[in-house]
Specification:
387 residues
Length: 387
């Protein structure tokens, strides 16, 4: 992908780019629907990313050619204007958020491409935002501050693009580390690296169905969580222990009780998963992932027949340690933890089993945990290859 964007830049603009940036998508290993309850999430950056080859320009324009959409577009940094939906609004939103935060932004021209599947719940939008921010940092000559850039990317998506996302996606795309997942405290934004167990692989299982999470369904669940927090007299369900919940669960109506039980127990599972990873306990991490799926399916009720079929198909395969739906739900992806030695056979077997159950051809990606947003000097890289 890096070579592709460099070659296309040279073909389109007749000169070489100065830099290439890469920002990854992500998969969340555990910790679902906990972010807006001020809880804990445990994502990892994956080896699918958004890439931009670019060089600075002095005229204040940002000119970008998207290989994925086959289109070129531009905007001026002194005349930012939201013109509606579309991939360019993510870049404009980042520029707007950086300007509002006092960062000096300069123009550039670039070629953009990515291999993060769009709409699969692997955070292609956050990858685009963090790649854009990394590009602005390079041409502006200012220090890259990953957590701060993640917050500004979230602000761009919330206030410019109009998507009310949490902080997880931008944070892991900015702060990921190869070989590790990242425990994120969604209240304090503190983070802690958690090593993936040795001799394991993470497999992303795209059901080839796209989530139909209606605003009403999301808002209803969020309202139930907020109502439960008020009932317990706390700021968010993150502050409710499992013991406190079990002691007073009978005071809640059945639906609110189920929603709250998922969040309370999911936070506990996420912290337990971090501990399991620190001691290299792959079996326990897998068990926690399985329990998370059951809770999302039965208590939070955000799974789907296809997601359930995918998880069942995964757990049937030799070498599978655990599997769960990942993301908002109602479609999209599941994630599995498997032994490294069986990863290839697992991918083939789970695809066949899922296709047999649903008649749908899935996409299966054996992935690896990678670094967050990075910048590469094109000329330096070329000199290294030539010597």
């Amino acid at each position: 992908m890096q070579q592709r964007v460099v070659a296309e830049f040279e073909r389109l603009f007749g000169q070489s780019p100065m830099w290439v940036v890469r920002a990854p998508g992500r998969v969340n290993l555990i910790g679902e629907h906990t972010d807006y309850n001020a809880g804990f999430v445990l994502p990892m950056a994956i080896d699918r990313a958004v890439w931009i080859a670019f060089r600075p320009e002095s005229d204040g324009y940002v000119v970008v050619h998207s290989l994925d959409f086959g289109a070129q577009a531009h905007f001026h940094l002194d005349a930012l204007r939201n013109t509606g939906a579309g991939w360019l609004e993510y870049l404009k939103g980042v520029a707007w958020a950086l300007q509002a935060a006092g960062y000096p932004v300069r123009g550039w021209r670039g070629v953009l491409a990515g291999d993060v599947p769009i709409g699969a719940g692997l955070s292609s939008s956050a990858a685009l935002e963090m790649a854009t921010a990394r590009a602005f940092a390079a041409v502006g000559g200012w220090e890259w501050r990953p957590a701060e850039m993640a917050l500004l990317g979230q602000r761009a998506e919330n206030q410019w693009v109009g998507v009310n996302c949490g902080i997880m996606d931008q944070m892991i795309s900015a702060c990921g580390r190869a070989g590790h997942a990242l425990l994120i405290d969604c209240r304090s934004l503190d983070s802690e690296l958690a090593p993936l167990p040795v001799d394991t692989a993470v497999v992303v299982l795209d059901t080839a169905t796209r989530r139909g999470l209606a605003d009403s369904a999301y808002n209803e669940r969020r309202a139930r969580c907020e109502a439960a927090a008020r009932h317990f007299g706390v700021a968010a369900l993150r502050d409710v222990t499992v013991a406190l919940f079990e002691a007073r669960a009978g005071e809640l109506d059945p639906e609110t009780r189920r929603r709250a039980r998922h969040v309370v127990t999911e936070n506990e599972r996420t912290l337990a998963a971090r501990a399991a990873m620190q001691r290299g306990d792959a079996a326990e991490l897998g068990r926690l992932m399985n329990a998370s799926h059951v809770s999302l399916r039965d208590d939070f009720e955000v799974s789907s027949p296809e997601l359930n079929a995918m998880v069942t198909s995964a757990l049937e395969q030799p070498g599978c340690l655990g599997a769960r739906m990942t993301g908002a739900g109602f479609g999209g992806c599941a994630v599995a933890l498997v032994t490294q030695a069986t990863a290839s056979e697992f991918a083939t077997g789970v695809a066949a089993a899922y296709r047999g159950r649903t008649g749908i051809q899935p996409q299966v990606y054996v992935t690896a945990a990678t670094n967050g947003a990075e910048v590469f000097d094109v000329q330096t890289a070329r000199r290294s290859r030539d010597t």
